[in-house]
Amino acid sequence: MINLIKSELENFKRNFIFYKRTQAFKKRYQTIKKELFVKNIPENILQEYRKKWSIFGKKVETETLLLCYNLSGKVDLNIVPENIFSAIIETKLNPHKEIAFFELKNVYEKWFNNLEVFPKSYFHKIEGTYYDRDFNIIEDISQFLNSIDFNYPLILKSSRDTYGGEGVRKIKSLEDLWTGIEEFRSLVCQELIIQNESLGSINNSSINSIRTCLLRTETGEFKVINNSIRFGINGSLDNETSGGIVCSIDENGIFNEYAVNKYAQKYFSHPNSNVEFKGYKLPFYESLNLTAENIANQIPLANLISLDMCLDNENIWRCIEINLNGQTIRFAQYAGKGFFGNLTNQIINKTK
After folding, report:
1. Which of 143, 150, 283, 319 is the most buried (most CB within 10 A)?
2. pLDDT tens, 189-225?
3. Could you tell me the sign of the dihedral formed by the alpha carbons of 166, 300, 288, 317, in that order?
4. pLDDT, position 76
5. Where does 30-133 have alpha helices with state H?
6. How many Å apart are CA 222 and CA 216, to the nearest integer?
7. Mean pLDDT, rounded, of the chain
8. What is the pLDDT of residue 138?
9. How many angstroms separate the CA atoms of 85 and 248, rounded?
10. What span, in angstroms and rounded, lies between the C-alpha atoms of 78 and 57?
11. Euclidean distance between the first and the last CA atom of the chain, given in angstroms as a whole number
């Protein structure tokens, strides 16, 4: 009887999560121009799409497919319905709560064997206690801050949950630093990474980061499944939620012909620099994938990882942030290609 009750509660929880995620995506689609849903897909293709994704036992929404088609002109049945990914697939690929440990920016230089890939830290604050870069307790933070010759500007970040640029501060002086450290109970103070000159020519108002998505394959090793580059516009951060735009990158490192903003508005060139996206090749693309895979292969328990990467002024790929929950699939899909590509059927069978 107890097992039956537990089973019923789990089933209710799964259905509730699916309902909430479905409503959230419906609400977001309402903010997108209606013209991006008017170009219809033949009914026989929609039926085939519904059949493919109904294996999860849920009503299949077609808005995701329709939007991606209206943006790209391409029909790909591997386009993942966003609510199914968010409520079902991601949670089954990454079921362990313990992986949240790897989203803590304080541990990057401690856990990973290639610490030079991550931004250099000056000090940490964890649950109100201060630590130096080697995790020795700082007994007098005032004396510590006054003794360090900081190379301003610095970056101050909340230890986790910096989605959309929330909890990120650019520090230009000791006075700013004092104000910043009082704002967060847990944080990390890091160097400011200077970005590659070529990427800076597209947008120099903020770091242009790469969202690199990786999947653990049947061999147990992670492989990159897609990349997208994010740009700030009009002085914004590069995050889509902060007003930035995102451009998909193909398997050869070539930019998609257009980028999109949060509301799926298309940009064929950067609105500030006027640099066209079509045909642009990401510098050191192969090195990006190797660096990202090296990082991901040091993370146990997870099967899907999204890394925020950037290319510095010495042409070295650096990892800014590790994302393991609440990952987004639309950056790749808005270019008309399924998030998991030719691995889609394998993922369906693994998570159904």
Report:
1. 319
2. 999 999 999 999 999 989 999 999 999 999 999 999 9
3. positive
4. 98
5. 43-53, 63-72, 82-84, 90-93, 108-111
6. 4
7. 94
8. 97
9. 19
10. 17
11. 26
pLDDT of residue 165: 65
Q: Please state, in angstroms and rounded to a whole number, the distance separating the CA atoms of residues 136 and 38.
A: 60
Domains 97-103+196-324 and 120-191 share a fold: no
pLDDT value for 164: 62
pLDDT digits (tens, 9 = 90+) for 209-268: 999 999 999 999 999 999 999 999 988 778 777 789 999 999 999 999 999 999 999 999
Segments making up each domain of the chain, as ranges: 2-77, 97-103+196-324, 120-191
CB-based burial label for 267 (10 Å; 0-12, 13-18, 19+): middle
**Thinking of the domain 97-103+196-324, which architecture would CATH place it in?**
2-Layer Sandwich (3.30)
Q: What is the DSSP letter of 9?
A: H
Please, which residues have CB within 8 angstroms of residue 193's CB and are 6 or more apart in sequence?
119, 207, 310, 312, 318, 320
Distance CA 296, CA 131 (A): 26
Judge if the upstream peptide bond of residue 300 is cis by omega within 30 degrees of 0: no
Contact residues for 225 (Cβ-Cβ < 8 A; gap 6+): 213, 214, 215, 339, 340, 341, 343
> Which pLDDT score, from 0 to 100, does residue 163 have?
64
Give yes or no for a contact between 156 and 169, defined as CB atoms under 8 angstroms apart: yes
Instruction: Please say if the pLDDT value at position 115 is more than 70.
Output: yes
CATH assignment, 120-191: 3.30.1490
pLDDT tens-digit series, residues 119-151: 999 999 999 999 999 999 999 999 999 999 999
Name the token pair of 101.
């440990």
CA angle (14, 15, 16) in 5-degree steps: 90
- Residue given tokens 């949670």 in the structure block: 91
Q: Which of 190, 201, 182, 212 is nearest to 323 (CA)?
A: 212
Q: Would you say 217 and 223 are in contact if contact means Cβ atoms under 8 Å apart? A: yes
Write out the two tokens for 39: 């170009």
pLDDT per residue over 329-351, tens digit each? 999 999 999 999 999 999 999 99
